[in-house]
Amino acid sequence: MGVWKQTVAALSVAMGMVGCAGDVTTETAPELGSGVAELVAPNGRNLNGRNLNGRNLNTTELGQTLVSVDFAGARLGQSVLNGVRLEGSVFHGAAAGTAVSGHAFLGARFTGNLGDGGTVELRVDSVEPGTGADADVWVYGVSFFDAAESLWKPTCVAADGSAVGAIAVAGRWDHRQGVEGGGAKVDDAGRFTFACEGAAIAKCVRFGYRPWASTAEGQSLADHHQACTRMVRADFCGDGTSHTEDGNWVNLYDSVGVQTDSEAWRHEAEWDVDGARCFTQSTRAPQPVSCPGRTQPDTCGKSAHFQTGTLLMSEVPPAP
């Protein structure tokens, strides 16, 4: 059984114009501490367990939220990178007519998009290939340029301020809360997400729901990954609003063999890409949850519902 312990990842992006490379005071590229390994338990296709949930989709709103990253305009040294794309979580492209991929993206610079419509310059400081069951999950150390201080700072940080890595995931997410479409995955071919370890998007990759992967039967895991981001954040109403607090235990399972039910806990909810298809009175929410316009079915937590659209089910520990 894999037991997962969460440390909240945060993004600290200063507001201002994107900085240039010349005449810039540059801090030493932050090293990824061992905290990355502590953020997640090794999680193969059949290794499940009790998972500690958190509230954040990707990063906390400290200053501004990094909502996406552009493929176009990426640079490597003096060369413009053309045709940049992701195969799984590995970058591929061409520089000066030569194909480059993987480790060759060390030092690459990208343009990040902020929640207020602004942009920020990002730099890849380290490239760490995946290993074992996570061989296709590469982790990148990423810095952003703080124009106000003319410094490069880690884009993803743990609660103690230490740098943690990011998984590159194709597409972007709608970071709005309390509105239709909030929390939704947007299949944007021109943009990707640097998903910080410890927040929902990366967590769900670590749980085994790689959105670029498929089951042995050929079923894409993209929808399971999106349902997982809803579940992790307790986004019951599917509007981007989290109804939980950091530090609550939750057990999740599916019918495709990625996570299996190992706990005799209380049923909480059934999930799909749009949030909870139903939920019981036993939830992680500190206050009662109401989703106007959504009809609750008579029963919730029945395994037969996997055949009618449910992708994931969640459970919470027995009442003390």
Architecture blueprint of SSEs:
Blueprint: E1 11-12, H1 35-39, E2 50-52, E3 61-62, E4 66-70, E5 75-76, E6 79-87, E7 90-95, E8 98-101, E9 109-114, E10 119-128, E11 139-146, E12 151-154, E13 166-170, E14 172-173, E15 185-186, E16 191-196, H2 200-206, H3 222-232, E17 249-253, E18 266-272, E19 275-279, E20 312-316
Parallel strand pairs: 1-3
Antiparallel strand pairs: 2-17, 4-9, 4-16, 5-6, 6-7, 7-8, 9-10, 10-11, 11-12, 13-16, 14-15, 17-20, 18-19, 18-20
Helix pairs in contact: 2-3
InterPro entries: ADYC (IPR045426)
Protein name: ADYC domain-containing protein
Pfam families: ADYC
Summarize this, please?
InterPro entries: ADYC (IPR045426). The chain is mainly beta and 320 residues long.
What labels describe this entry?
31% strand, mainly beta, 3 helices, disordered N terminus, 7% helix, 320 residues
Written overview of the protein:
- InterPro entries: ADYC.
- It holds the Pfam family ADYC.
- This protein has helices at 35-39, 200-206, 222-232, and strands spanning 11-12, 50-52, 61-62, 66-70, 75-76, 79-87, 90-95, 98-101, 109-114, 119-128, 139-146, 151-154, 166-170, 172-173, 185-186, 191-196, 249-253, 266-272, 275-279, 312-316.
- By secondary structure, the protein is mainly β.
- The model is unreliable at 1-54 (pLDDT under 50).
- The chain has a 7-stranded antiparallel sheet with strand order 12-11-10-9-4-16-13, covered by helices on one side. Strands 2-17-20-18-19 form a 5-stranded antiparallel sheet. The chain has a 4-stranded antiparallel sheet with strand order 5-6-7-8, with no helix packed on it.
